[in-house]
């Protein structure tokens, strides 16, 4: 069973991101504050749920949450500040948009930077321990998947509808064959055997 709260504060937000290990597309974060009476049996770490369940849970989370926010950080910024900083920035952006303002933050993972002097704790595998982080993980994943499905229509040869921008063999082969797009992260090793790649599009 996932726990509702980590701290003693009533306005505690959970935050998580999706798409950190991808070669293409944004890194997407969500932050969620849940009410004290929140219960949702199916809710778990988004990686443990199938796509259908995640899609079913999203509107329920959105309706039941006290507040939530989702943010995308695009590849240009990821390339500029690196993926770890971009992930943290995405989570921070979400938190600053929440109304009411959270009194405590719980973050999935082991790295974070303070935002508006709000106390926080990093929790490794937090999306499998706390409901608000699990809810944030489902929102981040479903919003990002939706975005990748949309840009798939523009560049179907990379099959983002299926791989969501992750480094599958098929995705790497398409990069080898067609080069990269404006949605690719140029700072990532896009091909395992590359030494030098000219990224001019």
Structure description:
The protein is α/β, with parallel strands linked by helices and 201 residues long. The chain has one domain (12-152): Ribonuclease H-like superfamily/Ribonuclease H (Nucleotidyltransferase, domain 5, 2-Layer Sandwich), CATH 3.30.420. Helices cover 35% and strands 15% of the residues. The chain has helices at residues 51-64, 75-81, 83-96, 131-152, 160-163, 169-178; strands at residues 12-18, 27-33, 67-73, 104-108, 120-123. Strands 3-2-1-4-5 form a five-stranded mixed β-sheet. The termini are far apart. Residues 193-201 have low confidence and may be disordered.
CATH topology value? Nucleotidyltransferase, domain 5
Output the CATH class name.
Alpha Beta
Instruction: Please tell me the CATH architecture by its name.
Output: 2-Layer Sandwich
Helical fraction: 25-40%
Strand content range: 5-15%
The name of the CATH superfamily reads: Ribonuclease H-like superfamily/Ribonuclease H
How much is the radius of gyration in Å? 17 Å
Order of helices and strands: EEHEHHEEHHH
List the strand order in the largest sheet.
3-2-1-4-5
* Gap between N and C termini: 49 Å
Total number of strands: 5
Number of helices: 6
Low-confidence stretches: 193-201
| Shape, per Cα inertia axes | globular
Mean pLDDT: 93
Which structural class should the secondary elements be placed in?
alpha/beta
Major sheet: size, sense and barrel closure?
A: 5 strands, mixed
Number of domains: 1
Domain RNase H type-2: 10-200
Family: Belongs to the RNase HII family.
Subcellular location: Cytoplasm
GO molecular function: manganese ion binding; RNA binding; RNA-DNA hybrid ribonuclease activity
């Amino acid at each position: 069973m996932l726990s509702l709260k980590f701290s003693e504060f009533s306005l505690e937000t959970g935050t998580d991101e999706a798409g950190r290990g991808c070669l293409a597309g944004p890194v997407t974060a969500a932050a969620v504050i849940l009410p004290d009476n929140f219960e949702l049996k199916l809710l778990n770490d988004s990686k443990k749920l199938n796509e259908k369940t995640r899609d079913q849970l999203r509107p329920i989370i959105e309706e039941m949450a006290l507040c939530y926010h989702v943010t995308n950080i695009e590849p240009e910024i990821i390339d500029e500040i690196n993926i770890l900083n971009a992930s943290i920035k995405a989570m921070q952006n979400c938190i600053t948009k929440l109304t009411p303002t959270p009194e405590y933050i719980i973050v999935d993972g082991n790295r974070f930077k303070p935002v508006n002097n709000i106390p926080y704790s990093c929790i490794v595998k937090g999306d499998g321990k706390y409901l608000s982080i699990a809810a944030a993980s489902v929102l981040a994943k479903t919003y990002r998947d939706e975005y990748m499905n949309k840009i798939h229509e523009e560049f179907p040869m990379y099959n983002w509808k299926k791989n969501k921008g992750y480094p599958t063999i098929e995705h790497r082969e398409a990069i080898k064959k067609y080069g990269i797009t404006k949605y690719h992260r140029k700072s990532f090793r896009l091909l395992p055997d590359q030494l030098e790649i000219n990224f001019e599009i």
